[in-house]
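PROTOCOL LOG
Step 1. Enter all chains and additional molecules of the complex.
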Amino acid sequence: MSAPRKQIHLAAHFPGVNNTTVWSDPRSRSQIDFSSFVHLARTAERGLFDFFFLAEGLRLREHRGRIHDLDVVGRPDTLTVLGALAGVTQRLGLAGTINTTFNEPYELARQFASLDLLSDGRAAWNMVTSPDAFTGENFRRGGYLDRADRYVRAREVIEGARAFWDAWPDDALVVDRERGVFAAPSREVTHRTTQFDIAGRSPLPRSPQGHPVLLQAGDSGDGREFGAAHADAIFTVHGSIEAGKAFFADVKERLARYGRDRDALKVLPAAAVVLGDSAEDAAERARDIRLRQVGPHTAIAFLEQVWGRDLAEYDPDGPLPAVEPVDNPDITRGRVRHAQDPRRVAQEWRERAAAEKLSIRELVIAVTSREQFVGTARHVAREIDRYVQEDACDGFILVPHLTPAGLDEFVDTVVPELQDLGSFRTEYTGTTLREHLGLPRPHDTTRGARAS
Ligand SMILES: Cc1cc2nc3c(=O)[nH]c(=O)nc-3n(C[C@H](O)[C@H](O)[C@H](O)COP(=O)(O)O)c2cc1C
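Step 2. Run joint prediction.
Step 3. Record the structure below.
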């Protein structure tokens, strides 16, 4: 008998920041209006997705000393939005990105436990570190933490939060009318580490899924190790089939060090999808979308982030600058910096632009392309399935280019194709996010204590 087909996990990334959204499209709507969040969440639930996903930016980005007007201003608080969405969805997981550098374990544990209880076990926390000093100024402490210490603190935050979540016995939610209590209280938590000296009790019992699902998104060696130790899923940029397979193998191998099973961690790259009636139609639509996402100003601003200097005089439709980059990490503040060695990156881009005869704008389009699935619904479904069956990933976090209707067509046309392939659910079989992801329920830590 053949092995059961690997099942695909899908999530919906709410767009609205960066230059991903095509604002010039007449169908684009507000990225802060509640109706937009509801539209995307309900579409994802109609498509039987695992979860809805919110990224986070804690400070308005600046480019060359000014608010970066190519980013879109306006991003409501993550947990508030997810709490509201819990009331208008039934099964969809609700994942929020929240920083471990500027927040406290107790308050995070309480906030996420609240979302998890209000949604009957559908919450997830994407734990990010983002330590840059510019963001930190919003929190008075500035860049108080060295890059190397970010994951030390992240570990201590999550271990602290787990200590609070797991300190309630699983069977605590009982009504004892005789004694007049609703739930037995949690046991006391102490958490003494390099960053924290905490003693207290969690005010909330465990949710139907035990505690929130944990996601991770850093890509360094430390980040991957942190994910292998603590995360249930990793959100990654390694979306091509080759890079995906290498990343998948790397992080799955790390799990053994923590006594964890290979299936205990899901790998979910970001992906963009462009659909059309034929391959040519979809390719044409994809070209049009990329040109609208990377307009002339965006192309120059992107180049300036690597070159570290003012390139306003350059023609976006002309060749790459011959001048060398300067080391100026502050030219753009408040975003993750991917080019650690600007001179090497500039050289690689010049070589690519020369070989493929690309202008500045064309080069930026080429290097910023996320893994894209372009084609008919059937072709896209087969490609998504191939990536998952060949262990390049366990599924995708889809990043639509339209707010909020960017997944309508996918849900109407690609989801049925995935179901026909037998690798995507035809109904929700569980109620919690852990059940959707096929993850075991974490143990409460009171068991050993009670058994002895
Ligand atoms: C795919 C991906 C998504 C991320 N999303 C966010 C985000 O929404 N908000 C945030 O503050 N940081 C985000 N980060 C930044 C990471 O938390 C981390 O700070 C950064 O990647 C540097 O860590 P590293 O050196 O381990 O990669 C993201 C990183 C990756 C790779």
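Step 4. Note key features.
The two ends are 45 Å apart (CA to CA).
Residues 279-368 form one domain.
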